[in-house]
Amino acid sequence: MSERLWLVVPAAGRGRRMGAALPKQYLALAGRPVLAHTLARLHQAFPEARLCLCLDPEDDRFDPAWVPFARWRRSAGGDERADSVRRALEAIADEAADDDWVLVHDAARPCVRVDDLMRLLAALRQDPVGGLLATPVADTMKRDDGQRHVVRTEPRDGLWQAQTPQGFRLGLLRRALDEARALGREITDEASAVEALGLTPRLVPGRRDNIKITHPEDLALAGHILAAQRDEPRSRPGHEHEERP
Ligand code: C5P
Prior knowledge:
- This protein is an alpha/beta fold and about 240 residues long.
- The protein has a single domain, classed as Spore Coat Polysaccharide Biosynthesis Protein SpsA, Chain A, CATH 3.90.550.10.
- About 30% of the residues lie in helices and about 20% in strands.
- It has helices at about 35-45, 80-90, 115-125, 170-180, 190-195, 215-230; strands at about 5-10, 30, 30-35, 50-55, 70-75, 100-105, 130-135, 140-145, 150-155, 160-170, 200-205.
- The strands form three sheets. It has a seven-stranded mixed sheet. A two-stranded antiparallel sheet has the order 2-3. A two-stranded antiparallel sheet has the order 8-9.
- Helix 1 (about 35-45) crosses helix 3 (about 115-125).
- It is globular, with a radius of gyration of 18 Å.
- The protein binds cytidine-5'-monophosphate.
- The site of cytidine-5'-monophosphate has 17 residues, from helix 2.
């Protein structure tokens, strides 16, 4: 079995929901672009991994000095996130084998913890399918009628919020994304493409501070999270993952 690890980082979004002049991966967070933080976390966890970074071909803001990996390449982003990831898999096909592991991690999640990254990969290596970091849903979930009125409360038991990284072996991930595309399925993460093949990705409990920067207020929150992570004593491994809210 292959032990080779690829990291695919989709960073080709234009950040329309942020309403900012810059795409979110380039916004300044604690003095550095969001993307530089994300790459630094991934590198701390997996210094030997090979990186493929998906960038908008028209992007003139990216600076290679932010990439701490010795082995890396860039690939052209697509219209949707899933297209960016699919193109990255095509871009690494010359060097990657079907049983290589691929972890896909959003550029916009700079607060992911190094120990969660390592725990995720260890868990995936035990799994025949692959899986993702996720957290059990804590809030009460409401279904609307399309006009901002509640029609019912959805049971939250067994519901999880998907995060990234999401990791699968290259051959399986490529098959899943190709099939989703061929069938015109809308895919917002890798796991849903794999699920559509009838497989059951593993849920690896992550932490709630692995937020995705999506809305303007998320940037300040990410700044607070990074500061709190720097200040905290080394946590007891696994401690927070045992409880369900
Ligand atoms: O827009 P969303 O929050 O889903 O973006 C998640 C990640 O996917 C971001 O890091 C963004 O840069 C990336 N993305 C991409 N190509 C797209 C759209 C989003 O690489 N076409």
